[in-house]
Design goal:
The chain has four helices and no strands. It is mostly helical. The chain is extended.
């Protein structure tokens, strides 16, 4: 996946596109089923969600929260 983004830095992206990107570049919205499944997982695992939120608040993840 690193090769896919090699050389991409975003410094030449116009400011307008930061907030209004081309819709062709965005992923499709989640279906109602997937949203409900995610909501159910969050309700069933409140401790995991709480720990994740605390981690995000402390910024221990190094920025965006994506861990590989």
């Amino acid at each position: 996946i690193k090769d896919q983004y090699r050389g991409a830095d975003g410094t030449n992206v116009p400011r307008e596109q930061w907030f209004h990107p081309d819709k062709a570049l965005l992923p499709p919205p989640l279906s109602g089923e997937k949203k409900e499944a995610a909501r159910k997982i969050m309700e069933e695992n409140p401790e995991i969600v709480r720990a994740w939120r605390e981690k995000m608040m402390k910024r221990e993840s190094g920025g965006c929260g994506l861990e590989i």
